[in-house]
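Lecture notes, part 5. Sequence design as translation. It can be helpful to think of inverse folding as translation between two languages: the language of shapes and the language of residues. The source text, in structure tokens, appears below.
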């Protein structure tokens, strides 16, 4: 196009316009441009631009344009006014050459004094806001949609890993650091507010750290701050916060919830969550199968409707305890009514879940079918009763008769008959002891054994146990040694059960001790209890058996051990006696064959 036509076209523009010729002289400056710079009309025509704009040559002016572009936006330059003052301007500059190759520049000028004052005030506000929110680590920014410029606070820079002295375009820096998949979402709050599509908007997105080693989550909240007289948005203010920790917590919580749901849904036992009003909130397949209902049927039902009517009062009492916060969980066996009206027994485990204020929010329940277990327990009880009445009673009579026969002197039996009589008595005693162990084990396991606990002098009871077991020691060719620094110590025990404990420990110590060795019994007072120990030197306890030693029917699988006989219930019964009378029990066994079994007796009366 002809250069003169371009010049003519620019002159028609109705905004402040200045045209600079190839020699740097102002060849055109319209009235609005003269007014902005404080000059009379046509006063600048022919004047060198270098006295007005902060450039020293046409080449320097042209340097603002980066090829191949033919124009550029100069966001800020300070021009000189006629009165010697200065004025901040922004300029949209376009260049072209005429027919002779002369280079012309047209600059559309805009006074940005008000904008700069607004920016100054904004920075001041941001500074004050920075002081107020520094502790909260909230970065603040102010975006001008008209000029597409942004002012950010120091905290915002810190969140981005930038120091106040870093000379970077914060918009470009931010864009380059936002995760590519999140960029559109990150820009959305600014777009919505800038385009007047909403007063407020927010987004959560990932931002790469300054060193590029990790991604951090940030949240941006934006809101319209100012509009011009025509209603256009001219300021969008926003806040940026680092929410990485919250996101991490949310992710961990999401994983935890998923794991719980998987465990809940796939559990082989019945599980349900129940509101404090008793209504089902969720149930798993195992519970549906157990009760014979569909999931929909249960969710429309109340937990109590499935319970046996006779258990209603006790059930409601426990629920009231949960609601009151007196208990957090409980376990009990209850009857349930299946969909086919069959009554089954279940082991119900209940735990309460509280809200953030500590109030009961809902209940998690686990339901295990124990109908068959109860049937087997009933059969076991009947069997134990049969053993007690049908075996122990006649066996006692048989042993009495054998004892009577062995004392008769009128007609002495032959040696063979006496030997058979002795064997019968010994085997009868063993059978009687076995029956007693089985019956005791059952009572202790069911916690039906009654104890008569009172204060006793412990050394006296220990000496009684030694005298009662002297024959056993002589049989295995060992001896007892008693060590008691303070013979006056007393503790709370059931004397009969104490003797049962001592007999079990002494019998075991004697059986597994080396011949001609000593069994050491020690009684020692401690802070709140008395410790009684029995120590022998012998074969020791195999490492593989130590975890099972107090379990019922457990015996070390060695020929020597099995040769000693026994039910494998003695140590279990001993443990239950000690613990149910307020003490503790344990053992120590070393590689050199030294084994010590010990138990404690409370000094104060157990509750």
């Amino acid at each position: 196009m002809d250069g003169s036509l371009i010049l003519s076209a620019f002159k028609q523009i109705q905004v402040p316009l200045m045209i600079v010729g190839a020699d740097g002289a102002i060849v055109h400056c319209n009235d609005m441009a003269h007014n902005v710079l404080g000059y009379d009309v046509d006063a600048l025509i022919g004047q060198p631009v270098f006295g007005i704009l902060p450039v020293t040559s046409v080449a320097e002016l042209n340097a603002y344009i980066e090829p191949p572009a033919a124009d550029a936006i100069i966001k800020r330059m300070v021009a000189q006014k006629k009165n010697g003052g200065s004025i901040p301007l922004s300029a949209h500059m376009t260049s072209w050459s005429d027919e002779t190759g002369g280079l012309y520049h047209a600059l559309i000028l805009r006074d940005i004094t008000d904008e700069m004052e607004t920016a100054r005030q904004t920075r001041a506000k941001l500074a004050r806001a920075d002081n107020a929110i520094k502790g909260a680590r909230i970065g603040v920014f102010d975006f001008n949609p008209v000029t597409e410029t942004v002012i950010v606070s120091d905290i915002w820079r810190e969140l981005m890993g930038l120091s106040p002295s870093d000379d970077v375009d914060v918009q470009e820096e931010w864009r380059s650091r936002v995760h590519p998949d999140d960029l559109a979402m990150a820009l959305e709050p600014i777009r919505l507010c800038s385009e007047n599509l909403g007063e407020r908007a927010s987004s959560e997105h990932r931002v790469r750290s300054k060193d590029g080693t990790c991604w951090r989550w940030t949240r941006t909240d934006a809101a319209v701050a100012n509009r011009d007289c025509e209603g256009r948005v001219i300021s969008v203010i926003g806040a940026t916060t680092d929410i990485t920790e919250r996101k991490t917590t949310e992710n961990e919580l999401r994983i935890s919830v998923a794991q719980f749901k998987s465990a809940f849904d796939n559990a082989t036992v019945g599980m349900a969550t129940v509101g404090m009003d008793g209504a089902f909130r969720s149930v798993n397949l195992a519970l549906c199968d157990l009760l014979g209902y569909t999931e929909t049927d249960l969710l429309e039902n109340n937990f109590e409707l499935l319970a046996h009517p006779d258990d209603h009062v006790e059930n409601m009492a426990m629920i009231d305890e949960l609601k009151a916060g007196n208990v957090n969980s409980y376990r009990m066996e209850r009857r349930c009514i299946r969909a086919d009206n069959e009554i089954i027994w279940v082991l119900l485990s209940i735990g309460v879940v509280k809200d953030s204020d500590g109030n009961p929010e809902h209940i998690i329940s686990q339901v295990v079918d124990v109908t068959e277990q109860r049937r087997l327990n009933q059969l076991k009880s009947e069997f134990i009763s049969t053993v007690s009445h049908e075996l122990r009673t006649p066996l006692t009579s048989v042993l009495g008769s054998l004892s009577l026969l062995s004392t008769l002197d009128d007609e002495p039996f032959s040696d063979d008959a006496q030997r058979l009589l002795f064997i019968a008595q010994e085997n009868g005693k063993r059978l009687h002891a076995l029956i007693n162990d089985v019956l005791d084990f059952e009572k202790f396991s069911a916690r039906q054994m009654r104890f008569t606990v009172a204060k006793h002098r412990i050394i006296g009871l220990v000496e009684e146990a030694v005298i009662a077991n002297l024959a056993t020691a002589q049989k295995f060719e060992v001896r007892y040694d008693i060590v008691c620094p303070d013979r006056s110590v007393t503790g709370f025990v059931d004397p009969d059960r104490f003797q049962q404990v001592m007999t079990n420990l002494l019998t075991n110590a004697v059986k597994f001790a080396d011949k001609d060795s000593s069994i050491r019994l020690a009684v020692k007072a401690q802070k709140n209890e008395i410790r009684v120990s029995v120590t022998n030197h012998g074969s020791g306890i195999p490492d593989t058996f130590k975890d099972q030693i107090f379990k019922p029917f457990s015996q070390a699988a060695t020929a020597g051990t099995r040769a000693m006989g026994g039910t494998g219930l003695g140590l279990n019964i001993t443990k239950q006696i000690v613990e149910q009378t307020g003490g503790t029990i344990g053992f120590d066994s070393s590689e050199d064959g030294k084994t010590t079994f010990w138990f404690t007796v409370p000094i104060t009366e157990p509750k």
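The translated text above is only one of many valid answers, since several sequences can fold into similar shapes. The chain has five domains: 3-111, 115-247, 269-369, 374-445, 454-602.
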